[in-house]
Amino acid sequence: MKTKLHLLLGSFIIVAIGLISLNQTLFAQSDEEDYLPVKAINIDIGTGANGLSAGIGFRYSFASLTVGLAGFATDIPNYSTQPPVGLIFTPNQPLPSGYSEKTYSGIIVTFDAGFHLDYFYPYTFFANVGFFTQQDSVLAEEVSSGQKYSYKVENSSGMTFGGGANYQVSDYIALGLGVHNKRGVYGQFIYTW
Question: Residue 18 phi/psi, 5° resolution?
Protein backbone atom coordinates (compact mmCIF):
# COMPACT_ATOMS: atom_id res chain seq x y z
CA MET A 1 0.00 0.00 0.00
CA LYS A 2 2.84 2.40 0.82
CA THR A 3 4.42 1.67 -2.58
CA LYS A 4 1.16 2.56 -4.38
CA LEU A 5 0.87 5.77 -2.37
CA HIS A 6 4.48 6.74 -3.11
CA LEU A 7 3.93 6.00 -6.81
CA LEU A 8 0.73 8.07 -6.81
CA LEU A 9 2.38 11.04 -5.06
CA GLY A 10 5.47 10.84 -7.27
CA SER A 11 3.36 10.77 -10.45
CA PHE A 12 1.26 13.67 -9.21
CA ILE A 13 4.33 15.80 -8.42
CA ILE A 14 5.96 15.10 -11.81
CA VAL A 15 2.76 15.94 -13.73
CA ALA A 16 2.19 19.08 -11.63
CA ILE A 17 5.73 20.38 -12.19
CA GLY A 18 5.47 19.71 -15.93
CA LEU A 19 2.12 21.46 -16.28
CA ILE A 20 3.21 24.43 -14.15
CA SER A 21 6.31 24.84 -16.32
CA LEU A 22 4.27 24.61 -19.53
CA ASN A 23 1.69 27.09 -18.26
CA GLN A 24 4.34 29.59 -17.12
CA THR A 25 6.11 29.34 -20.50
CA LEU A 26 2.90 30.01 -22.43
CA PHE A 27 1.86 32.97 -20.28
CA ALA A 28 5.36 34.45 -20.31
CA GLN A 29 4.79 35.13 -24.03
CA SER A 30 1.82 37.44 -23.31
CA ASP A 31 1.79 40.85 -21.62
CA GLU A 32 2.06 40.53 -17.85
CA GLU A 33 -0.44 43.39 -17.42
CA ASP A 34 -3.13 41.59 -19.46
CA TYR A 35 -3.00 38.42 -17.40
CA LEU A 36 -5.55 38.10 -14.61
CA PRO A 37 -5.92 34.69 -12.99
CA VAL A 38 -9.12 32.82 -13.84
CA LYS A 39 -11.32 31.97 -10.87
CA ALA A 40 -14.19 29.53 -11.36
CA ILE A 41 -16.64 27.19 -9.69
CA ASN A 42 -17.69 24.11 -11.63
CA ILE A 43 -20.53 21.62 -11.26
CA ASP A 44 -20.22 18.24 -13.04
CA ILE A 45 -23.04 15.80 -13.82
CA GLY A 46 -22.38 12.53 -15.65
CA THR A 47 -22.79 8.82 -16.05
CA GLY A 48 -20.61 5.81 -16.63
CA ALA A 49 -20.03 2.18 -15.78
CA ASN A 50 -20.33 3.04 -12.07
CA GLY A 51 -23.74 4.75 -12.39
CA LEU A 52 -24.60 8.43 -12.05
CA SER A 53 -21.91 10.86 -10.95
CA ALA A 54 -21.62 14.42 -9.72
CA GLY A 55 -18.81 16.73 -8.76
CA ILE A 56 -18.12 20.23 -7.53
CA GLY A 57 -14.86 22.10 -7.79
CA PHE A 58 -12.99 25.37 -7.59
CA ARG A 59 -10.38 26.71 -10.01
CA TYR A 60 -7.77 29.40 -9.48
CA SER A 61 -5.48 30.32 -12.37
CA PHE A 62 -4.31 27.09 -14.04
CA ALA A 63 -5.13 24.66 -11.16
CA SER A 64 -8.36 23.27 -9.75
CA LEU A 65 -9.60 20.91 -7.05
CA THR A 66 -12.74 18.81 -7.54
CA VAL A 67 -14.59 16.45 -5.19
CA GLY A 68 -16.86 13.94 -6.88
CA LEU A 69 -19.27 11.11 -6.17
CA ALA A 70 -20.11 8.18 -8.43
CA GLY A 71 -22.19 5.07 -7.99
CA PHE A 72 -25.37 6.53 -6.58
CA ALA A 73 -28.62 5.41 -8.21
CA THR A 74 -27.10 2.03 -9.07
CA ASP A 75 -29.30 -1.04 -9.04
CA ILE A 76 -28.56 -3.45 -6.17
CA PRO A 77 -31.05 -6.35 -6.15
CA ASN A 78 -33.20 -7.25 -3.17
CA TYR A 79 -31.37 -9.43 -0.68
CA SER A 80 -31.85 -10.87 2.77
CA THR A 81 -29.72 -9.77 5.70
CA GLN A 82 -30.20 -13.18 7.37
CA PRO A 83 -28.61 -16.30 5.83
CA PRO A 84 -30.67 -19.50 5.46
CA VAL A 85 -31.21 -21.52 8.64
CA GLY A 86 -28.10 -23.50 9.58
CA LEU A 87 -25.66 -21.38 7.51
CA ILE A 88 -23.32 -18.62 8.61
CA PHE A 89 -21.59 -16.41 6.04
CA THR A 90 -18.27 -15.21 7.45
CA PRO A 91 -16.58 -12.45 5.42
CA ASN A 92 -13.05 -13.84 5.75
CA GLN A 93 -14.12 -17.43 4.90
CA PRO A 94 -15.10 -18.83 1.49
CA LEU A 95 -18.79 -19.34 0.74
CA PRO A 96 -20.28 -22.82 1.24
CA SER A 97 -20.88 -25.09 -1.74
CA GLY A 98 -23.81 -23.99 -3.91
CA TYR A 99 -23.22 -20.24 -3.39
CA SER A 100 -21.30 -17.69 -5.47
CA GLU A 101 -20.19 -14.09 -4.89
CA LYS A 102 -21.86 -11.20 -6.73
CA THR A 103 -20.25 -7.75 -6.39
CA TYR A 104 -22.25 -4.54 -6.78
CA SER A 105 -20.52 -1.15 -6.93
CA GLY A 106 -21.29 1.21 -4.11
CA ILE A 107 -20.48 4.86 -3.59
CA ILE A 108 -17.16 6.09 -4.98
CA VAL A 109 -15.65 9.33 -3.66
CA THR A 110 -13.02 11.06 -5.83
CA PHE A 111 -10.57 13.88 -5.12
CA ASP A 112 -8.93 15.37 -8.22
CA ALA A 113 -6.38 18.08 -8.97
CA GLY A 114 -6.88 19.61 -12.40
CA PHE A 115 -4.48 21.51 -14.64
CA HIS A 116 -5.94 23.91 -17.21
CA LEU A 117 -4.45 25.26 -20.44
CA ASP A 118 -6.08 28.56 -21.52
CA TYR A 119 -3.80 29.19 -24.48
CA PHE A 120 -6.50 28.49 -27.11
CA TYR A 121 -9.17 30.96 -25.92
CA PRO A 122 -12.24 30.57 -25.91
CA TYR A 123 -11.36 26.88 -25.47
CA THR A 124 -9.71 25.56 -22.33
CA PHE A 125 -8.26 22.07 -22.16
CA PHE A 126 -7.72 20.31 -18.86
CA ALA A 127 -6.28 17.13 -17.39
CA ASN A 128 -6.78 15.81 -13.89
CA VAL A 129 -5.21 13.27 -11.61
CA GLY A 130 -6.28 12.23 -8.14
CA PHE A 131 -7.40 9.60 -5.69
CA PHE A 132 -10.57 7.56 -5.13
CA THR A 133 -12.02 5.48 -2.33
CA GLN A 134 -14.81 2.99 -2.94
CA GLN A 135 -17.03 0.62 -0.97
CA ASP A 136 -18.75 -2.28 -2.78
CA SER A 137 -21.42 -4.69 -1.55
CA VAL A 138 -20.68 -8.38 -2.04
CA LEU A 139 -23.73 -10.66 -1.89
CA ALA A 140 -23.87 -14.44 -1.57
CA GLU A 141 -26.12 -15.84 -4.31
CA GLU A 142 -27.60 -19.31 -4.00
CA VAL A 143 -26.88 -20.85 -7.42
CA SER A 144 -30.01 -23.03 -7.58
CA SER A 145 -32.61 -20.41 -6.58
CA GLY A 146 -30.89 -17.08 -7.31
CA GLN A 147 -31.74 -15.83 -3.78
CA LYS A 148 -29.18 -13.31 -2.52
CA TYR A 149 -27.92 -12.79 1.02
CA SER A 150 -25.72 -10.18 2.70
CA TYR A 151 -22.11 -11.45 2.73
CA LYS A 152 -19.48 -8.70 3.07
CA VAL A 153 -18.33 -5.21 2.11
CA GLU A 154 -15.11 -4.58 0.18
CA ASN A 155 -13.18 -1.31 0.36
CA SER A 156 -10.75 -0.20 -2.33
CA SER A 157 -8.81 2.90 -3.29
CA GLY A 158 -6.48 4.01 -6.03
CA MET A 159 -5.59 6.60 -8.63
CA THR A 160 -7.98 8.58 -10.83
CA PHE A 161 -7.33 10.42 -14.06
CA GLY A 162 -9.26 12.20 -16.76
CA GLY A 163 -9.46 15.20 -19.04
CA GLY A 164 -11.66 17.32 -21.23
CA ALA A 165 -12.37 20.75 -22.67
CA ASN A 166 -14.43 23.85 -21.84
CA TYR A 167 -15.88 26.52 -24.08
CA GLN A 168 -16.29 30.06 -22.73
CA VAL A 169 -19.87 30.99 -23.75
CA SER A 170 -19.81 34.47 -22.17
CA ASP A 171 -17.69 36.52 -19.79
CA TYR A 172 -18.99 34.55 -16.80
CA ILE A 173 -20.29 31.23 -18.14
CA ALA A 174 -18.47 28.26 -19.66
CA LEU A 175 -19.68 24.80 -20.62
CA GLY A 176 -17.54 21.71 -20.77
CA LEU A 177 -17.31 18.03 -21.48
CA GLY A 178 -14.98 15.62 -19.70
CA VAL A 179 -14.17 11.97 -19.13
CA HIS A 180 -12.99 10.38 -15.88
CA ASN A 181 -12.00 6.78 -15.14
CA LYS A 182 -14.39 6.57 -12.14
CA ARG A 183 -17.06 9.21 -12.85
CA GLY A 184 -17.47 8.37 -16.55
CA VAL A 185 -18.48 10.97 -19.15
CA TYR A 186 -19.75 14.21 -17.66
CA GLY A 187 -20.94 17.68 -18.60
CA GLN A 188 -19.75 20.79 -16.79
CA PHE A 189 -21.37 24.09 -15.96
CA ILE A 190 -18.74 26.64 -14.98
CA TYR A 191 -19.14 30.10 -13.47
CA THR A 192 -16.01 32.21 -14.00
CA TRP A 193 -14.95 35.62 -12.76
Answer: -65, -45
